[in-house]
Design brief:
The complex is a heterodimer. Chain A is an alpha+beta fold. Chain A has eleven helices and 13 strands. In chain A, helix 2 packs across helix 3. Chain B is globular and about 65 Å long. Chain B has one domain. The chains are: A alpha+beta, B mainly alpha.
Chain lengths: 347, 213
């Protein structure tokens, strides 16, 4: 339960990165040896690395990111692959890595879709700490390494549906939000969880912009039962690789049944509260963006319909138009959370 | 004064200048075409094409509106034909914008185009602006000018309405960043304010002349 048992030694000091490297090398060699012994042609090591761990997909070698710090390497050496056909899986085609990392809404780095990719590359997310505040047994500021230590990383294939009507399918790497919440021990008064993005105008040009009307830092929130739902996920990577800054490095939320703006990026604070927390888009335009923001093909945004979406990437000859599903296709897992609620009013 | 410069009074200069400006005005189109053919417009090329053609339509419309003030302030009569050239380029990019929207975004589902134009206010105003530009484009020849007589001027004064509607069309789709709104809005405001001021001045001068008689 307790996470503040701050160890004297960081885990990165316990397991040097070289050991893990060797372990992978050793496994690779063993496989090669096995294959050779079986009379097969030995495959090149790189191919073994990609297929040996069973992940659905990995970042292309030429776009792979290096570890922000040594301990990340250890953490990513052991990722549980998504179970084929399981509840955190979809057979739909993945959105290619290149598109996932170059087409982003992250207004802290600019409002054009290509701005975050262009402006976030020098973003420094190490060291990073997350503050836990409010109605919890174990509040405090946690170094990210300690924060993540107890959690086994896993892969999840989720649909992501933006309120602007585009969507993607992304293999995230991370851990369940519920695990973290259980660890910090919310009190009986904790009815909502609020999240905050880093406020750092020096690194985030969008926060310096005079023409932006968002009141920084960016804020989001969930009802406690939504946050505890098994689908709610804290992601630290995608495509088997470390989270690119434009996608919300080092740690972000992924709530697949809600519009993308709920999945807040680059989190520095998690606050437990008794009352519904203010959320950025709702503060800006309450008529257009509600607190719940569940994907709902029957409730239209005042300026655009929501019954269809564009699955990216498109080409000029394939528009990628598909029907939007209730709760983005996750109704089985989350519809019960909203029983008896008028979703047209609680949009 | 600029108009005293010999070069700027040489008709050859203006002939060359017009060719250069024509070529420059084609550049955005060529870049977008190249992007479309090489597939370098990102994950959603149709959206990118729609955004860029729309932005260029508005830019050319504002540039065309800037010709008269520039001419009056500098006395360079050679600028005059540019008003039409730039206006036609605004129409060209606006038509491209509409074609991209119909062919690539709506894939020619005509019923949806109809309901979009009627029910989505930002599309209604954008479409109205396009109709005005089209009417102006069709009547932009010398022959049509002669045939329409005084009505030609009335029709072409709708350009101010078209510019306002185009700006509104842009404002309506913005989510937060007000830079575009402030930038193009200020330009249009200045261009309209200039006309208002010169008109008032002319009227005052006329009244003064009448009184002095």
């Amino acid at each position: 339960m307790l996470i503040k048992s701050a160890p004297d030694i960081l885990s990165s000091e316990i397991t040097p990165e070289s050991v893990y490297r060797n372990r992978r090398q050793f496994m690779g060699d063993a496989l090669k040896f096995g294959a050779a012994a079986g009379g097969l042609i030995a495959m090149p090591g790189a191919a073994l690395g990609a297929s040996g761990d069973g992940l659905r997909a990995r970042a292309p070698a030429d776009m792979e990111r290096s570890a922000p710090a040594a301990w990340w390497q250890d953490k990513f050496a052991n990722i549980e692959a998504a179970e084929r056909g399981g509840q955190f899986w979809t057979d739909e085609d993945l959105t290619p890595y290149r598109d996932v990392v170059t087409y982003n809404n992250f207004y802290e780095f600019g409002t054009d879709k290509s701005d975050p990719f262009q402006n976030a590359q020098s973003f420094d997310a190490d060291p990073w700490s997350v503050e836990i505040t409010g109605e919890v047994d174990n509040p405090g500021s946690y170094d990210l390494e300690d924060f993540m230590k107890p959690h086994q990383l896993e892969e999840r294939i989720y649909r992501l549906r933006c309120v602007e009507r585009w969507s993607m399918v992304i293999p995230w790497i991370g851990f369940p939000l519920a695990e973290l919440i259980r660890r910090v021990g919310p009190t009986s008064k904790a009815k909502y969880v609020a999240f905050e993005t880093l406020l750092d105008p020096e690194q985030m040009p969008g926060q310096r912009g005079r023409f932006s009307v968002i009141e920084w830092p960016y804020r989001e929130g969930l009802r406690m039962d939504e946050a505890m739902n098994p689908l709610s996920f804290l992601a630290v990577g995608l495509y088997g690789n470390y989270m690119p800054p434009q996608n919300g490095a080092p740690i972000r939320l992924v709530i697949p049944w809600k519009y993308g703006f709920k999945s807040i990026k680059s989190i520095v604070r998690i606050h437990f509260t008794e009352t519904e927390p203010p959320t950025s888009w709702n503060m800006l335009q309450p008529r257009e963006y509600g607190f719940y923001a569940n994907v709902n093909p029957e409730v239209h945004h005042p300026r655009w319909r929501q019954d269809m979406e564009t699955r990216l990437p498109t080409t000029l000859f394939s528009s990628g138009r598909i029907e939007t599903r209730m709760f983005n296709g996750y109704a089985d897992q989350v519809a019960h959370l909203y029983e008896g609620m008028d979703l047209a009013r609680n949009y | 004064m600029l108009s005293q410069l010999k070069l700027l009074r040489n008709p050859r200069f203006w002939q060359v200048a017009r060719v250069v400006i024509f070529a420059l005005a084609c550049m955005p189109f060529l870049f977008l075409l190249q992007g479309a053919l090489l597939n370098t417009l990102g994950a959603d090329p149709a959206r990118e094409l729609a955004l860029e053609t729309g932005r260029w339509a508005l830019r050319f419309l504002l540039m065309s509106l800037a010709v008269t003030p520039l001419r009056e302030m500098t006395g360079l009569t050679g600028l005059f034909p540019l008003r039409r050239t730039l206006g036609l380029f605004a129409l060209f990019y606006a038509v491209l914008h509409f074609v991209v929207y119909m062919v690539f975004l709506l894939e020619l589902r005509w019923s949806e185009i109809g309901s979009d134009i009627l029910e989505r206010p930002y599309i209604t105003v954008g479409f109205t602006a396009l109709l005005i530009l089209a009417a102006m484009g069709i009547t932009s020849t010398k022959d049509m000018m002669r045939r329409l007589g005084p009505r030609w001027k009335q029709l072409h004064q709708l350009v101010y309405l078209a510019a306002l509607l185009a700006l509104l069309h842009l404002l309506w789709i913005l989510r937060t960043d007000l830079f575009d709104a402030v930038f193009y809005g200020t330009l249009l405001f200045l261009l309209l304010a200039y006309r208002l001021v010169t008109r008032l001045k002319k009227r005052r001068a006329r009244i003064a002349r009448q009184q002095s008689v």
